[in-house]
């Protein structure tokens, strides 16, 4: 099973032929700019399309703190996204409460463990919308 750096490398090398389909769901690559280092970081994340946008979840497995990539987009919302062999610039934003209510079931259908992650933490796990620019 692909994970972490190997997942990113195989995805990039093959235009998503290896890595897009993962554990019964689908992943994209999100590249953010580190809020402290200014370096680029690429993370494979489960996604679902929503109209022209893509939706991801800042779960960090139900940890009490947000994942680093989410902290990065709060500082700089301009990101690079790769879905299969399509690489594009996007703006990342936290879904509004109404959007989250609509999108959460879509995301838990793609990865049921998100509900378990939410039960493990007091923070509301953010749903993030990626919109192509």
UniProtKB/TrEMBL annotation:
CC terms in the record's Gene Ontology section: plasma membrane
Chemical reaction(s) catalysed: oxidized coenzyme F420-(gamma-L-Glu)(n) + a quinol + H(+) = reduced coenzyme F420-(gamma-L-Glu)(n) + a quinone
Domain of life from the UniProt record: Bacteria
Signal peptide: none
Keyword annotations: Oxidoreductase
Pfam family, one: F420H2_quin_red
GO molecular function: coenzyme F420 binding; coenzyme F420H2:quinone oxidoreductase activity
Entry EC no(s): 1.-.-.-
Family, similarity comment: Belongs to the F420H(2)-dependent quinone reductase family.
PANTHER family the UniProt entry points to: DEAZAFLAVIN-DEPENDENT NITROREDUCTASE, F420H(2)-DEPENDENT QUINONE REDUCTASE RV1261C
Xref: NCBIfam families: hi_GC_TIGR00026 (TIGR00026)
Protein name, as recorded: Deazaflavin-dependent nitroreductase
Species: Actinomadura rubteroloni
């Amino acid at each position: 099973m692909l994970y972490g750096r190997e997942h990113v490398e195989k995805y990039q090398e093959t235009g998503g032929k290896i890595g897009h389909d993962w554990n019964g769901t689908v992943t994209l690559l999100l590249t953010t700019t580190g809020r402290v280092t200014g370096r680029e970081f690429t993370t494979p994340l489960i996604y679902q399309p929503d109209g022209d946008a893509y939706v991801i979840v800042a779960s960090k497995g139900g940890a009490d703190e947000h994942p680093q990539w989410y902290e990065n987009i709060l500082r700089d919302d301009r990101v690079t996204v790769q879905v299969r062999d399509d690489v594009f610039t996007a703006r990342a934003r936290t879904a509004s409460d109404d959007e989250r209510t609509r999108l959460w079931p879509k995301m838990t259908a793609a990865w049921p463990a998100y509900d378990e992650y939410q039960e493990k933490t007091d923070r509301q796990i953010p749903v993030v919308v990626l919109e192509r620019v």
